[in-house]
Amino acid sequence: MPDWTPTADLLSFLAASKTAPFLLTLGSCVVADPAGLSIKIAEAAALAGVRIILQQGWAKLGIDLRPPPKHVFVLGPAPHSWLFPRCAAVIHHGGAGTTCAGLLAGLPTLVLPFFGDQPFWGEAVRKAGCGPPPLKANTASIEDLAAAFGDLLRRNNEMKICAQAMGAKIAAENGVDEAVKSFYRHLPVSMQCDLSCGLARVYCQDCDLKLSPVADVTIHAGAFRAHVRSPWRYVDYSVGAERATTLNAALAPVTLISSTIWAIFRDGPSSGAEQFKRVHEALSPVGSHSLIVQPIAVGAAVASGASRTVGMALWAGVVFLDKVGSGLGPEAKHIEQPQSVVQGLFQGLDRFTRGVWSGVTAPVTDTLHATAQNHYPWNIVGGACKGLANLVVQPLAGTLQLVSRPLMGITNQFKAKSSLRVGDDEVDQVSLEIDDQTRKVIVEKFVFTHFALTEGRKLRVRLFRGQNYQI
Known about the structure:
- The chain is of the alpha/beta class.
- It folds into four domains: about 10-175, Glycogen Phosphorylase B (Rossmann fold), CATH 3.40.50.2000; about 235-325, no CATH class; about 340-420, no CATH class; about 425-470, no CATH class.
- It has 16 helices and ten strands.
- Strands 3-2-1-4-5 form a five-stranded parallel beta sheet, sandwiched between helices. The chain has a three-stranded antiparallel beta sheet with strand order 7-6-8.
- Helix 12 (about 290-330) runs antiparallel to helix 14.
- It is elongated and about 115 Å long.
- The chain starts with 7 loop residues before the first helix and ends with a strand.
């Protein structure tokens, strides 16, 4: 309120006594009986022997006190920054903003809560030693209010020390920063970075982690630059929107025809024509005709959904073939998914060669293995049968992976082209904004998360600016 200036009557009331008055304001709260509450407050103040300023606000306090008693001053709008320092205590509804303003001014506080978070702030003020227990303004008696006013008066110095200490803590706190941190702390897990670095923006397929931009640059600026990453979406709203569009498009002609027939049956042909025009305009996009556009929209939506379904089905088939081949094939070290066609061809040929060699040699090796374990005839016969079965199964497993591995390489190569890539300039720019301590914390969390199951493994991670960090 830049244009506000105190009136002469207010200045006279403030100067009329060596003891500063109490201030009572209810902000934007509305009461059912403003006159009754105002009289109750005035009588309680007289009983406690304190002077009080009633700020009218939305509760319209004091407007029926004509004239008000000498110990009561009725005030209209006034800035709290000017008014609070000139009062001995503040009595208010317990809004978060008013509570903060009163404590910043170092004032003992009595809260008269109505709803919402106001009872919480009233209890918080009491527990902090900054005021008496909160009271319900509408149900508290004159004696209850007088006792609370008297408590504020008697323990004013004690409560003021607590309020000033609390105000100093509030003043030293970066409220906006703390609010943002609290917001991130309470986000759903699906929205949080797996390394606890804020909001997840990127998903790394190789790390199987959701990462914030800072964590993404820290992890993928060096040896892991080639990892396949893609934007992380918490909810794919496009799917729901597409389904809704498809449903609306499919039902639009039905709605148009059925409502027109009902209008003709109910009120005649003229009403049917009006109904047809009204519903047609409501369902049609601007500049188009629903009976033409909507079927096209249905077809496009169905085609889009079908293409996605076919693509997912083909990928699932490729993965299934690869798993079957791995399960039936000879024992070999686990090989990660190929990231290119060439890598897939090499892996497929390797698995095929292993499978053929294992199948050709299986009748001999399986029989010898069974004989070495036990010389019983049935064990030898069982080993020979197993070898003959592997003569067919192992080459088949190799053939499956000869097909699946190149297909996986092609798919992952296309994914890599469409995935996020951090350029050298961007890495240099973002990495300069990450301090060494933050970088070390991110790397430590990454190593713990990514290599938690590897006992006794030490990983040396080279940090930016030529520093080494040993885990």
